[in-house]
Amino acid sequence: MAGLHKSEVANPVLNWIDTRLPVITMIQKEYGVFPTPKNFNYFWNFGALAMVNLAIMIATGVFLAMNYTAHTTMAFDSVERIMRDVNYGWLIRYVHANGATMFFVVVYIHIFRGMYYGSYKKPRELLWMIGVVILLLMMATAFMGYVLPWGQMSYWGATVITNLFSAIPVVGESVVQWLWGGFSVDNPTLNRFFSLHYLLPFVLTGVIFLHVAALHVTGSNNPLGIEVKGPQDTLPFHPYYTMKDSVGICVYLLVFAALVFFAPNFFIAPDNYIPANPLSTPAEIVPEWYFLPFYAILRSVPNKLGGVCMMFGAIAVLFILPWLDTSPVRSCKFRPIYRILMGVLVVSLVVLGMVGAHRPEGIWVALGRLCTAYYFLHFLVLLPILGKLEKPLPLPESISRAVLSVGGGPLPRGAAAKPMEKI
Amino acid sequence: MADTMATATHTHPAGGDVTKRDLLKLVTAATAAIGVGSLAWPLIDSMNPAKDVLALSSTEVELAPIAVGQGITVVWRGKPMFVRHRTPEEIKAAQDVKLSELIDPASDASRVKAGHEQWLVVIGICTHLGCIPLGNKPTDPRGEWGGWFCPCHGSQYDTSGRVRHGPAPLNLALAPYEFENDTKVKIG
């Protein structure tokens, strides 16, 4: 019996299982007593929210797929049938469609959190890079899902996005035909998009598992951006952060429900309720809101290949962010200049989003170029230089000191300290 | 499992407020369970027949072309329906059987509409394991009782669609139908 795990679970049946497959011990270690910095703010809810959101998307998506037909002549009607005839089909589709919006809201805030508090810095560089992979997978999944209803926006969105690859010199045309499986976006394209749209969320689940596994090696960052020094700086994940996450999930579900029940079509372009017509492009063609800043970057460059490169570059730059930021201090709380620059970055992304939603004429062109320039300037020039020039504010000695000094008061003994003694 | 975990971590307060804490846990868990359940129900219900499926649930049959002694098969809700124009002898045979001789006793009158005794409308699915019995085509075997014969396991039905020889346990099932006029019947 040497190889068996010594389980501490009291219940004999669970103990029997845990001895042979220590899942309960693992959950206990990673989500029960897992030492978590005691100073999290609500920004630290968004990872859990993203997980909940993914689960909702997979659950609703599986049931939508039972009623969806991936064929150009039937896709649009099958979605309308879901809306009109399938029991609760309207609810399931609206939850899934608005779930994409919620997912990006949650993930963008999660990314902002990581940037503002320097969560990407050593030793969490790989954790951050896996996160960027998750973002890319999400974008691909969302894009392909948007094509499935086969409305006008679906069709022309697919046409425009796949045509981005035609900007690749020499092989561009062949790549695009390969993506389409033909000479235009057509039935083969729709079929493969459906297949991949069903596959990618499970790939996403796998990559998220790696993301979480990496997180549990390094431990979480925290609003102060200083490392945990000992048990006095942490709380067990359960019940402290399971509870805090539950509060966040309640608020998140309220917002989600408000969107689904009171404004389900707020983010859905009316033109997508017109069946796809390969012979007529809608007058106002814009991508979903979560792609608008990148779309604006694409349009800001008056050169086809240049625009495409800048757009993909906007994501690629995030991969090397851990090495672009040369400052040893993580949290913006102690970086007065970087904090301002982060604000400017957020504003320029919001402006880029607005630029993306408007026709490229007049002031919007200039604004788009200005904000695109700042985006790259921020990452490629300001961040590397700032690390050398900026004088950070003094860092607190420890998380515990900082928490107590702002009047949090000591936590009741036995609740927090005891479980930590094991570690 | 929450309890095991709490015990293992020693976070369960030992003393007076165990009851209060336990109540809070139960209320929280119950609320979450109700929430998840009410989220799950729309997903489960979406697998039930949709409204367009239900809307296709009636079939009209023109009776005029069916000659005496002939039977036809029509489709209702994806299932075969036998519509048989019985001969006077067949009707008499069906009416004269003693109920005590039947495996699943039912009078012929309970299986047809009064005034339309010549028309028998039954679901054409053998009550044994779901095969379609033979007997509608003139060339089909109709079994010893002149109704239907199931090729799968040899069940036999009489001219009222009642099972006369096993292994089928029940008579051919009836479906709701009504006569719109003397030559038209609406099933469903």
Explain how this protein is built:
The complex is a heterodimer of chains A (423) and B (188). Chain A is mainly α. Chain A has 17 helices and two strands. A two-stranded antiparallel ribbon of chain A has the order 1-2. The model of chain A is unreliable at 412-423 (pLDDT under 50). With 188 residues, chain B is α+β, with helices and mostly antiparallel strands. Chain B is built from four helices and nine strands, in the order H-H-H-E-E-E-H-E-E-E-E-E-E. Chain B has helices at residues 2-9, 18-45, 51-55, 88-96; strands spanning 59-62, 71-76, 79-85, 119-123, 146-149, 156-158, 163-165, 177-181, 184-187. In chain B, the strands form three sheets. In chain B, strands 1-9-8 form a three-stranded antiparallel β-sheet, with no helix packed on it. In chain B, strands 2-3-4 form a three-stranded antiparallel β-sheet, with no helix packed on it. In chain B, strand 6 (156-158) and strand 7 form a beta hairpin. The longest helix of chain B has 28 residues, at 18-45. Classes of the chains: A mainly alpha (423), B alpha+beta (188). Chain A binds chain B through residues 8-11, 14, 24, 27-28, 32-33, 59-60, 63, 66-67, 81, 84-89, 91-92, 236, 238-239, 246, 414-415, 418-419, and chain B through 1, 4-5, 7-11, 13, 28, 41-43, 45-48, 50-53.
Structural class of chain A: mainly alpha
Oligomer: heterodimer
How would a crystallographer describe the biggest sheet of chain A?
2 strands, antiparallel
What order do the SSEs of chain A take from the amino end to the carboxyl end, as H and E?
HHEHHHHHHHEHHHHHHHH
**Low-confidence parts of chain B lasting 5 or more residues at pLDDT below 50?**
1-11
How far apart lie the N and C ends of chain B? 51 Å
Low-confidence spans of chain A: pLDDT under 50, at least 5 residues? 412-423
Helical content band of chain B? 25-40%
Write down how many β-strands of chain B occur, each being a DSSP E stretch of 2 or more residues: 9
Rg of chain A computed from alpha carbons, rounded to a whole number of angstroms? 24 Å
Order of strands in the sheet with most strands of chain B? 1-9-8
Radius of gyration of chain B: 28 Å
Across the major sheet of chain A, the strand order is: 1-2
**DSSP, total strands of chain A:** 2
